[in-house]
Design goal:
alpha+beta; RNA Polymerase Alpha Subunit, Chain A, domain 2; 334 residues; elongated; eight-stranded mixed β-sheet; four-stranded mixed β-sheet
């Protein structure tokens, strides 16, 4: 007699009861998948637009839908996998010319797996504006606001680079002749500087080159006034008398010094240095150390003056090289 709940008992029970049930379950699942796979369903899928064979000298200048909405019908299993098929709407532009091209999205324009049917395509057409591709150079114009600190001037404002070359549709680039910077604020500036300045671009240009920044070199200088002065030449060491005692100079004097009532003549010294080779004296103008701002000397008249000729040193030693043959030493006379 077989013991209940023994190993043999359970083995026979599984073979007799559970195995047929397991086989039935597997068959049911397979049948369900087979019937479900054969069932046709509709689905909306988003299919990307792919432009191919665009000529090198042409460019698409307008915005168009890069994805189209397609409704397909087919067996459930194939429809569920259609997103993995990498289906695209190809547009062949190998024969395109400049102008407007209307591409019709008919049902046959979408290549789908066999067994799948395209029911609808939205939009029904795509409009492409084809333009000639050109390269054009644009001058960069700086835009400023404000004024430098009183007593200073904006001497120069240069852009680096001064020009930018842009490649794009001819009809777009033909609308522009120059490019401008965003506003550069120089209010209160009292020294030269270098800044990174973004360009103020229209959206059509941004689409071609993106947001662009250039370097602005801003040169701020002192505001000066040209003045004439007469200066006495400093006496030469040794008391040598000079043929010229005064020089006339032309100088660029900072306006701030003039407004401060600084006596410029008292702040400049005319000195002379010897050019022994040419026997002339070279006039130099030395500014006083207490000057808070520089003075630029433009002209010195005269710039050189002749020096007196050098006098050879006198020889006071007695000349004993020659003596009379008639002279007799005193001791020999005695």
């Amino acid at each position: 007699m077989m013991m209940p709940f023994s190993r043999t008992y359970w083995r026979r029970l599984i073979a007799k009861e559970w195995l047929p049930m397991l086989i039935s379950l597997v068959l049911a699942i397979a049948l369900w998948n087979f019937v479900g796979g054969k069932q046709t369903v509709d689905k909306n899928v988003m299919i990307p637009v792919e432009v191919i064979n665009l000529p090198r000298d042409l460019v698409i200048s307008n915005q168009f839908k890069k994805v189209i909405d397609v409704t397909v019908n087919g067996p459930r299993a194939m429809i569920l996998e259609i997103d993995n098929k990498q289906i695209t709407r190809q547009i062949d532009l190998s024969k395109a010319t400049p102008g407007t091209t209307v591409v019709t999205n008919d049902l046959d324009s979408i290549e789908v797996p066999r067994g799948v049917t395209v029911l609808r395509v939205q939009p029904s057409s795509i409009i492409l504006s084809l333009d000639k591709l050109i390269t054009k150079q644009f001058l960069i114009i700086p835009v400023t606001t404000g004024n430098p600190q009183p007593g200073y001037l904006l001497q120069a404002l240069t852009m680096d680079p001064e020009f930018i070359s842009i490649t794009g549709p001819e009809t777009v680039l033909a609308q522009y002749e120059i490019l401008r910077t965003k506003v550069i604020n120089i209010n209160g500036a009292n020294k030269s500087m270098q800044r990174q300045i973004p360009l103020d671009l229209e959206p059509a240009i941004v689409d071609l080159i993106g947001e662009t920044t250039i370097t602005a070199d801003i040169s701020i200088v002192l505001e000066t006034v040209q003045k004439d002065y007469t200066l006495l030449i400093e006496p030469v060491v040794g008391g040598v008398e000079l043929p010229v005692q005064k020089v006339n100079i032309i100088a660029n004097v900072p306006k701030l010094l003039l407004e401060q009532k600084v006596k410029i003549q008292n702040m400049l010294t005319a000195t002379i240095s010897a050019d022994e080779e040419n026997n002339v004296g070279v006039i130099k103008i030395i500014p006083a150390q207490e000057l808070s701002l520089p003075i630029e000397i433009i002209q010195i008249e005269p710039s050189t003056i002749p020096l007196p000729p050098k006098v050879p040193p006198e020889n006071n030693a007695p000349d004993t090289s020659e003596s009379s043959d008639d002279e007799v030493p005193v001791e020999n006379q005695l």
